[in-house]
Amino acid sequence: MNDAIYDDPRLAEVYDPLDPDRSDLEAYTAMVDEFGARRVLDIGCGTGTFAVLLAPRGIEVVGLEPAVASLAVARRKPGADRVRWIPGTARDLPALTVDLATMTANVAQAIADPADWDATLAGAWHVLAPGGRLVFETRVPARRAWQEWTREHTHDVSDIPGVGRVESWIDLVEVDLPLVTFRGTYVFAADGAVLTSTSTLRFRERDEIEADLTRHGYVVDEVRDAPDRPRREWVFVARRQ
Predict the structure, then answer these.
(1) Using one digit for the tens of pLDDT, what is the confidence trace for 181-211?
(2) What is the pTM of this model?
(3) What is the distance between the terminal CA atoms of the chain, rounded to a whole angstrom?
(4) Where are the domains of the chain?
(5) Do 44 and 120 meet the contact criterion of CB atoms below 8 Å apart?
(6) Angle CA 71–76–78, to nearest 5
(7) Among residues 80, 104, 195, 222, which is most buried (max CB within 10 A)?
(8) Are β-strands 193-202 and 233-240 bridged in parallel, bridged antiparallel, or unpaired?
(9) DSSP class of 80
(10) Beta-bridge mates of residue 237
């Protein structure tokens, strides 16, 4: 089951306006150039921000996303007609070949179930061309990012065109490492609707991730520091042998 923030139509519509700063994607667009990738698979593409950023540059982009409401938002964005959108997970990938597969933002951690994680790594490996790369980020567990997932640190009020004022915040629900569960609350001033979305993320250690990648036939070329969150997140660059 998808988190409501991605699959509830009303929440999917305000996902981008509530998180407008996507400077984190600059590192990924830079790696597209660095690796000379002309065909990119964006796993867990969400509302398609990264996919539509790449498509106008002449890159063949496939956006893979299990949440139908998020895909509906993605398909309405300028440039969306240049992207191939696929509903589902890595288990649902058709035959295709790409130079680069990405999981931006929280995608890798949101795949919390070990079987789903294995299926994702395997699915990406099968569509990567020999020498193609899988790139994703994940939070460093020792930095305990969840300590700031409280109303005190996250409360915000946004005025969204066509929607009105939306009040939002996050509450930490449970820490049972490696799993951390939190709940987002969204209050729509227009009609007083209160919607919530509960999410669980898996905080994997670096050696665990490297072992998983190796087991699935990847070579870990590099583990970089996330430029937008230095010393708080790892960016894994793994290559299909």
Answers:
(1) 999 999 999 999 999 999 999 999 999 999 9
(2) 0.96
(3) 33
(4) 4-139+204-240, 143-201
(5) no
(6) 120
(7) 104
(8) unpaired
(9) G
(10) 135, 222
